[in-house]
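FORM 7B: Structural annotation worksheet

SECTION A. Query
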Amino acid sequence: MNPVNGNEAAFPPSVDSCLATVSGFLNAPGEPLMGLDMTEGEAIALAKQHFPDKPYCLVSNWMLIKMDADERSLKAIQRIGSEPYLVYAHKVLQDSAGRFCRGDWVRSTLQVSFTHGGLFETVNTVYVLVGAGLTKTADPDVVMSIHG
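SECTION B. Predicted structure
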């Protein structure tokens, strides 16, 4: 029973369905992808060297997600200089701009570039992908439904 209102269902069916879909996506297997195999300090130095004017967010336990968008959406994404990829990370290690605490989760905005085997650039941030991660494909609605 839901302690708030005494109903058996904790959430309306639409919310339960959304939670099940997101949970299923997050827990589904993906294709392994190796990020940067270096210390946190070395990874930060690499980000600062190649993106000296952008804040960085060092993450682990991450996923590189390709959004399975239709052709019209893909063209719109590319028109703004982006690609249909984003990063979801279960664990922030360090955020140079102080937006996230160590241990927080984070979902990026769209990819501008992906270089050096683990530097995922968005318009405002470079996500430094440390260690092993996964690649997955998902419907944009699923990806945008991921919340902490």
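SECTION C. Observations
Residues 1-5 have pLDDT under 50 and may be disordered. The first helix runs from residue 13 to 27.

SECTION D. Sign-off
Analyst initials: ____
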